[in-house]
Amino acid sequence: MIKNYSVKGMSCEHCANAVKGEVGEIPGVQGVDVDLAAGLVTVTGQDFTDDQVDAAVNEAGYTVE
């Protein structure tokens, strides 16, 4: 499964790494790609939920729109 999320507030590599780190810890997530210019996070894997991704992004200090 591949899902895209629009994330508000990311502006630098530190932001991207924080989001990648938190989302990457979700069970079932196999990959996380961050496009800073578009404010887009692409998550690949199996058996993860939107709520899990939202919580992980919030833990990193950002918001899924």
Automatic annotation (TrEMBL):
Entry annotated with the keyword Metal-binding: yes
The UniProt record lists the keyword Metal-binding: yes
GO biological process: copper ion transport
Keywords (A to Z) from UniProt: Metal-binding
Domain called HMA: residue spans: 1-65
Record-level Gene Ontology MF annotations: copper ion binding
SUPFAM superfamilies: HMA, heavy metal-associated domain (SSF55008)
Short name of one Pfam family: HMA
Domain of life: Bacteria
Name of the protein described by the UniProt record: Heavy-metal-associated domain-containing protein
Organism classification: Bacteria, Bacillati, Actinomycetota, Actinomycetes, Mycobacteriales
